[in-house]
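Section 3.1: Structural characterization of target chains.
Under the original work plan, the team committed to producing a structural model for every single-chain target entering the pipeline before any wet-lab resources were allocated. The record below documents one such target. The sequence was received from the expression subgroup and is listed exactly as submitted; it comprises 138 residues.
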Amino acid sequence: MDELTCNVVGIDFPNADKSKSNRRMELMLCTPGEPVDLRREPKNPYDTNAVAVFSQRGVQMGYLSAERAPLIGRRMQEEEHVAIFQALVGSYGYVRIRFGGGAPTLPDPEAATPSQPRPASFDPDAFFPDPEGPECGA
């Protein structure tokens, strides 16, 4: 079992649905820990590895980044997975994915890691993504 945080991109593009729903607004409606749905899109005309992210209300919030989508999509086919909304920070949304069973956990922003020391002006609402590297699937 392992978990990782992935960014959600394309949040400022309108959805193709009839109402042209707003992805950023949908992200703003989400609360940390809320379930999200990841959907592979092998017929996506721009990227056959695309993985779309939908809220529990069924509204698309964007896509996993093109760098992470191939790995995540492949693992989605092979392993049980659960995803939750983590945060909205600037131009990105973030989701937390757990593979291999169980529920994902939100990282504790107060638990600084050696690669990410706590800044002198620590903000308890700040977002601390997972470190990049092989242990995260990068």
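The mean pLDDT is 85.
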